[in-house]
Amino acid sequence: MSEAQIQPPVAPNVRFGLRSMIAVTSIASIFAAAAAPLSWGASETSQRHLAVAWCTTLASVAATYAFYYFRSRRVPRRAGQIRFYGMSAWERHWSPEGPPFLFWGAVIASPGILYSWFGNVAESANRPDPSFGLTLWIGFFIGFMVAHTFRRMIPWPMAITDEGLVDYGKLIPWDRFFRAEQFVDRPRIVRLHRVQIDYLFQGDPCVQFTPETEPAAVSFLSEKITASFREA
Question: For the chain, which residues make up each domain, given as ranges?
Answer without folding.
Answer: 15-231
